[in-house]
Amino acid sequence: MDTPGGAEFAPKSTYLNTSSCGVLPRRTVEAIKELAEENGDGRPDGAGDFETIEAARASFARLAGVPAERVAVGGSVAVHVALIAGSLPPGAEVLFPEGEFSSVITPFTVRGDLKVRYAPLDALAGAVRPGTTLIGLSAVQSADGRIVDLAAVRAAAAAHGARVLLDASQSAGWLPLDAGAYDYTVTGAFKYLLCPRGTSFLTVTEEAQESLTPAHAGWFAAADRWGSTYGPVEEFATSARRYDEPPSFLAYHGAEQSLALLEEIGVEAIHAHNTALAARFRSGLTELGHAPVPGDSGIVAIPGLGGRQPELARAGIVVSARAGNLRASFHLYNDEADVDRALDALSG
Coil, strand or helix: which one is 166? Predict the structure, then answer.
């Protein structure tokens, strides 16, 4: 099996751990090096430039299917989620799946004045009720790779007047994303979007933007940046840029290159590649007598085998252990030989 964009990568291990952190493409590494060297040399361009930030914003917007005006940049999913959590009135009810990733939940629970409920993932849509203000969930679950019935959740939210916050960190880059179908999406871009750590994107519908206060805004979020460097910002950008968290230029100089690569290859092609490898892995696991979590996800979890992660690491196979599961995640730099190598290690 050919690996899309394979020449862009040079992992020195059997790397099946993109759900923790993606492998940086060569072009991304070079962009970071170039900016770091310019900074170290004291050259004028060494501080980074805004055009790179805007190019990354526009590239993510195209991948997410929304206008760039709906995208805010930052460095952390938790910071973006906290902005949304801070916008809710006291007593608002927020619904999450059981076992949801902590960065999606904690900014709401630390407030102490919100009603937080949990429901099983497969019963989430049925748990939405008239008093539900917001549903927060990941498109693909971190612990076991399960894909949520997003259509059912959206329908339930619409029926009860609730908003939806979708975390696409485990899905954007391999699972097609229509960010415009959700009031908010947050995406840690250092996984399947192959960006450096310190890159995160928030999308907000025009209607939902009216309820958010740019609580962590500085001059970077101003309508006129260079005219807003001293004193309070008098006028913020009219787009989602007013919710920008001041970004790391080193990270975003790399992100511009990674996102461009994903656009060149196309999410549909990546989806086909990743899920084919995952299906091969599930089939092989079944033949070995293991029972992986079923489904069509590009992430494969095997309950009860998390303890074998160190053994695979010693064999040069990088996977992760999550909630007792052994978790393998496939992406552009993987091929069938990687799958078979992992199966051979697990058969021993």
Answer: strand
Instruction: Give which of 298, 281, 264, 34 is closest to 191, Cα–Cα.
Output: 298
Assess whether 221 and 311 both reside in one domain.
no
Query: What is the C-alpha separation between 328 and 342, in angstroms, rounded?
Result: 9
What digits encode the pLDDT tens for the residues 136-149?
999 999 999 999 99
Residue 1 has a pLDDT of 53
Q: By three-state DSSP, how is residue 163 classified?
A: strand
Which one of 264, 284, 307 terminates a domain? 264
Last residue of a domain, one of 264, 293, 310: 264
Residue type, 140: V
Q: Looking at 140-292, list the stretches that DSSP marks H as alpha helix, in order from N- to C-terminal side.
A: 150-160, 206-209, 249-265, 267-287
Give the DSSP per-residue string, 178-218: -GGGSSEEEEETTSTT-PPTT-EEEEE-HHHHTT---TT--
Identify residue 335 by its one-letter amino acid code.
Answer: D
Using 50, 70 and 90 to split pLDDT, how confident is the model at 320?
A: very high
- Which residue carries 């964009």 as its tokens? 5
Question: Residue 232's domain is classified under what CATH number?
Answer: 3.40.640.10
In this structure, the answer to whether residues 227 and 168 fall within a common structural domain is: yes
| Phi, psi for residue 312 in degrees, rounded to 5 | -65, -35
Encoded tokens for 179? 């960010």
Distances (CA, A) of 61 to 51, 72, 187: 15, 10, 12
CA gap 156, 124 in Å, rounded: 9
- Cβ neighbors of 241 (< 8 A, separation 6 or more) are 57, 69, 72, 221
Quickly state the pLDDT bin for 57 (edges 50, 70, 90). Answer: very high
Query: Based on C-alpha coordinates, what's the Rg of the chain?
Result: 21
**Contact in structure between 167 and 77 (CB atoms under 8 Å):** yes
